Amino acid sequence: MNNIFEITYTNEILNRIEKLNVNSQPNWGKMDVAQMLAHCSYFQDIAMGYSLPPRGWLDVLVGKFAKPIFYNDKPLAHNMSTIPTILITCKKDFEIEKEKLKQKIITFQKNGPEACKGRPHPFFGKLTCEQWGKGIYKHLDHHLKQFGV
């Protein structure tokens, strides 16, 4: 499984983001391209410790059993539910969101695995650095494929 902490995969993701444009259309889902970029950026905030959405009792109960979905080799399902606080429905500026996401990915990679050690995911709970690295790559890959890049 690819890991965002490996510079090769960081560069791959950044190059794919560069291929997006304001007119990129989704292959599935309701978000437009700017909303998708904002969603991914807000997800980076969780991994970086800038945001900590609350965990509900169901998240605690089910999340630990579903955890491998986040970092295994199987692609994420189309239209799966997301963390409510990072569900983007309002209009966003494509160029601003694109640059924000790229900078957060670069910072996350440069900070290295130790920076997210023990950081909880709002559904899956506590993750290892390796699980975060694989999960972040997988999440970004999922949404870039959603927009054909």
Percentage of residues in strands: under 5%
Please state how the strands of the largest beta sheet are arranged side by side. 1-2
Low-pLDDT windows of residues: none
Total number of helices: 6
What is the first-to-last residue Cα distance? 19 Å
InterPro entries: DinB/YfiT-like, DUF1569
Organism: Gracilibacillus orientalis
Protein name: DUF1569 domain-containing protein
Describe the structure.
It comes from Gracilibacillus orientalis. It holds the Pfam family DUF1569. This is DUF1569 domain-containing protein. This protein is mostly helical. A two-stranded antiparallel ribbon has the order 1-2. The protein has one domain (7-19, 29-146). The two termini are 19 Å apart. The model has no long low-confidence stretch (mean pLDDT 95). Helices cover 52% and strands 3% of the residues. It has helices at residues 7-18, 33-48, 57-66, 68-71, 94-111, 129-146, and strands at 120-121, 125-126. It contains 6 helices and 2 strands; from the N terminus they run αααααββα.
Which terms summarize this structure?
149 residues; 6 helices; single chain; globular; two-stranded antiparallel ribbon; mainly alpha
List the helices and strands and how they pair.
Elements: H1 7-18, H2 33-48, H3 57-66, H4 68-71, H5 94-111, E1 120-121, E2 125-126, H6 129-146
Antiparallel strand pairs: 1-2
Helix pairs in contact: 1-5, 1-6, 2-5, 2-6
Offer a concise description of the structure:
By secondary structure, this protein is mainly alpha-helical. It has one domain (7-19, 29-146).
